[in-house]
Write a structure and sequence with these properties.
Number of domains: 2
Radius of gyration: 16 Å
Low-confidence stretches: none
Strand order of the largest sheet: 1-2-3-4-5
Number of strands: 9
Shape: globular
Structural class: alpha+beta
Mean pLDDT: 92
Largest sheet: 5 strands, antiparallel
Amino acid sequence: MKILRSSEKKRILKQLNEQFGIEKMLHLLLRFGKEKIRAFSGSLSADELITLDTYLRVESAGVYIAKQQEDGIRLTVDGVSLFKEQITKNILELTEEQAQEWFKGQDLLIQLDKNFKILKYKDELIGCGKSTGERIVNFMPKERRIKS
């Protein structure tokens, strides 16, 4: 576990703003491994979290909100939910059939520019996928998928 410094948090927020229009982040950001970003808003201070991690080896704290990749930041389902009021960019509206495929864990055959997309069905933001140019890759965790 690594608590992200203010400069790292600003860099991530800048990238989130460029990709999705997200402007504010009130949470403490933690990095687990090289890519996983978690948001923590509990009552423990940064120093208390470090002490806890030193003695107990914290495997996770907070909510897993994003994965930092070479080509951008991919929001998790929880990250999309956390920032749903702020997301204004790269939103892709889905039909009912496309949304059903998405919830089953299927990739969507939609040709778009290569970028991360926030998927929307009716008035709900339902996830984040990566466009390869030919399709939208589904990152929905298996435990959250609808069984066919």
